[in-house]
Amino acid sequence: MRWLDLTLASIAENVALDEALLIEVDRGHRGSILRFWESPDYAVVMGASRRVELDVFRETCATDGIVITRRTSGGGTVLVGPGALNVAVAAPFDEIPGSASIEQAQRHVMNRIASAIAPFVPAVEVVGSGDLAIQGRKFAGSAQRRLRSALMVHCSILAQFDLGRVARYLPTPPRQPEYRQGRSHHDFLVNLDRSAGEIREAIKRAWAVPAQQETQLPTFLRNLVQEKFGEPDWIFRL
Fold first, then answer.
1. What is the pLDDT of residue 175?
2. Exposed/middle/buried for 118, CB within 10 Å: 0-12, 13-18, 19+?
3. Does any domain span residue 238?
């Protein structure tokens, strides 16, 4: 597996790059890849089927200049920004055990991330549909995107993140995992008390990636941003 540690200038570009890498893996134009990025600005990223009016305090976001975008994977809506390390694993189906099952593929990837974190947070566990938690409090959520012959699991890990901002921009989600037990963002979310750099290095070790990172970016990335991820018709379609 190759790896890429790259944060692009805009939130739309960063979401588009995850998609572009998956497309290239699916087409056989590159092998499996592990990508990291951490937005320097706060932004809202909705799941593919989430509704803006249910998932986002849109007026507050507009007032504060918080950009909203939408990814192509499932899962819930998240706030990203400084202290939220985003991790994506894109790989052919035959490299992910249990890939025929959405749930098994998700758990395989998240178990591997959990095992990377376990040396400094022994209580970490995979719960719900692919969350990482410590003593019942969530510090990472995940989502999956599947194409013809490859899949991507990506997650956002809270590490020294400003948790107070979550309730300002995101209402309590209408759909919740059972283990949340109706708790507010304040009572449910928790930071992993490690730097994003420490977590990144631990995950790289778990996948035994080479020392040299990937340098080649998909040539169609700009088109994806212009035609989809930066377009209001896509972002606010629901």
1. 85
2. middle
3. no
124 lies in which domain range? 2-231
pLDDT-above-90 percentage for the chain? 92
Phi-psi category of residue 52: left, alpha or beta, with phi > 0 → left and psi -120 to 50 → alpha: alpha
Asked if residue 68 belongs to a domain, the reply is yes
Q: Tell me the pLDDT tens digit for each residue of 150-181.
A: 999 999 999 999 999 999 999 998 888 999 99
d(CA 65, CA 63): 6
Can you give the CATH number for the domain in which 84 is found?
Answer: 3.30.930.10
Report how many domains make up the chain: 1
Angle formed at CA 187 by CA 185 and CA 191, multiple of 5 degrees: 80
Would you give the DSSP letter of residue 58?
H
Dist CA 16 CA 71 (whole Å):
8
Specify if 151 maps to a domain: yes
**Contact 85/63 with Cβ under 8 angstroms?**
no
Contact (CB, 8 A) for 81 and 43? yes
Nearest to 145 by CA among 219, 69, 64, 49: 49
How do residues 30-61 score in pLDDT, each as one tens digit? 999 999 999 999 999 999 999 999 999 999 99
- Is 236 inside a domain boundary? no
